[in-house]
Design brief:
Layout lengths: L6 H14 L2 E6 L4 E3 L3 E9 L5 E8 L2 E11 L3 E5 L7 E9 L5 E3 L3 E4 L12 E4 L5 E3 L3 E7 L7 E8 L2 E11 L3 E5 L7 E9 L5 E3 L3 E4 L9 H4 L6 E5 L4 E5 L1 H11 L5 E7 L2 E9 L2 E3 L2 E3 L6 E4 L12 E8 L2 E11 L1
């Protein structure tokens, strides 16, 4: 005599399989280097039903080294400023649901200092384009990089897709941190990255993945505005021993035009180390329009003058929205 299987058993079987199939895959960081005092976006993808919030840990093997975040939305991204107190070594990132039922580990990567002495240890860091930027064909953009103490006076710049070189953007240009590129209309729409390489082929650096399209969407961000050169400057006042960011009215106008309706936070970095928190500014809604009237045209920057800020050093303005970087620009102190 055959036994009938209860429908309840089938329900348990399918529900169990469904829950078991839930997974978290950490896609960044992967193999490579992260540098102390630099900001990075930890990225992961989730599959299946799971907790809506996660915690993020820095691990060495199965040993927890640091609580990066004890509670953050399970939305696939988290901006992390690597502490200067982390020792050199190999690590991995663990993203785990708050109920401890699902987790995922990144690939092994190395944390080191960006400072270097010998040429063979010095990487090239490509700052622009940034992750998921959209650059339109027929328009000009600034490729920006930091050579650290690279001794070569010239570099070459290439456009890559995977391991395939798509285009030689330039075979030789001064290693002066910036190159203006007019994107040819003949390049197919797709995802690419930029490689900046020394002429002697000893050292190179790759940008994050970005998109080239015929028409880029009107993104709810300030990325387009930040691609413009010299849009804001830092003025040094010797009399009042005070620094100011001028041009904040331009940022305010663009935020309003972009319709960004959440608070934004400004930070000033030197060598990707935060030297000043410039504050968080919230918008108001008037007659259906977003207004950032709390952002002044001239923003005071509280920096200790003893830091010896001068016109030869480079700084970065970082702008956060909803905990994510929505724009950044390397700027130079101007007297």
């Amino acid at each position: 005599m055959s036994k009938k299987i209860s429908p309840f058993v089938f329900i348990l079987f399918f529900v169990g399989n469904f829950l078991y199939s839930a997974s978290i895959t950490v896609i960044y960081p992967g193999h490579g280097h992260l540098y102390r005092a630099y900001s990075y976006t930890i990225k992961w993808v989730k599959s299946g039903a799971m907790d809506s919030r996660v915690k993020i840990k820095l691990m060495q093997g199965n040993t927890k080294v640091l609580d990066i975040s004890n509670d953050t939305p399970n939305d696939g991204e988290f901006v992390w400023l690597v502490p200067t107190t982390i020792y050199d070594g190999n690590y991995k990132i663990r993203v785990k649901t708050l109920d401890n039922k699902v987790y995922g580990d990144s690939k092994m990567f190395e944390i080191t200092s960006p400072q270097c002495i010998w040429l063979k240890w010095c990487p090239i860091r490509v700052n622009y384009p940034k992750d998921n930027d959209c650059w339109e064909k027929g328009k000009s953009y600034h490729i920006e990089w930091v050579p650290y103490k690279t001794m070569n006076f010239y570099v070459k710049i290439r456009l890559y897709q995977g391991n395939t070189k798509v285009l030689s953007i330039t075979d030789s240009t001064l290693n002066d941190r910036e190159f203006t590129w007019n994107i040819p209309a003949s390049i197919p729409d797709g995802t690419y990255y930029i490689r900046v390489k020394t002429i002697d082929n000893q050292k190179y650096g790759d940008s994050e993945l970005f998109r080239i399209k015929t028409n880029c969407p009107n993104l709810n961000s300030i990325g387009k505005f930040l691609s413009e050169k010299n849009w804001v400057k830092i003025l040094l006042s010797f009399n009042s021993r005070t620094f100011f960011l001028e041009g904040m009215d331009k940022i305010r106008n663009y935020l309003e035009q972009a319709g960004i309706n959440k608070p934004v936070t400004f930070k000033l970095l030197h060598g990707n180390k935060v030297v000043a928190n410039l504050g968080t500014f919230s918008p108001v809604l008037r007659k259906g329009k977003v207004i950032f009237n709390s952002i002044p045209s001239k923003l005071k920057v509280n920096i200790n003058v003893e830091r010896k800020i001068n016109s030869n050093k480079f700084y970065k303005l970082l702008i956060f929205g909803s905990g994510k970087i929505i724009g950044e620009k390397v700027i130079q102190v101007k007297r």
